[in-house]
Amino acid sequence: MNHIKKQKLLNRKRYTYISIDKMLANPAVSIQGIEEIKKLIYENRTRHFIERIVKQMNIKNIVAETDTLRTLFSGRGWQNIENPFNTLNQKR
Question: Among 20, 47, 51, 73, which residue's beta carbon has the most beta carbons within 10 A?
Fold first, then answer.
């Protein structure tokens, strides 16, 4: 089970991957989806199954962030944000 808790999820606000065990220990760094992972762990799902779910969550987060950045830098996002580079620099 320790191997599963070492899996990492992409935190889009911090632009970093955070391990599941850190999210379970500190809810302040948790991201959307951690409750689903926690439930799978307590249901004793297989390691392979949980790792696949984590990978799918990371793919969804990457695609969502890519869509956000594409809109931001395509010119359509400029109306709402003064400088897109500042938005990126404000992320940790």
Answer: 20
Q: What is d(CA 84, CA 86) in angstroms, rounded to the nearest whole number?
A: 5
Residue 60: which pLDDT band, with cuts at 50, 70 and 90?
very high
Distance CA 80, CA 17 (A): 28
Residue with tokens 């808790």: 5
Q: What's the CA gap between 47 and 53, in Å, rounded?
A: 10
Query: How far apart (Å, rounded) are the C-alpha atoms in residues 65 and 79?
Result: 19
Query: What pTM, to 2 d.p., does this model score?
Result: 0.72
- Per-residue H/E/C for 31-46: CCCHHHHHHHHHCCCC
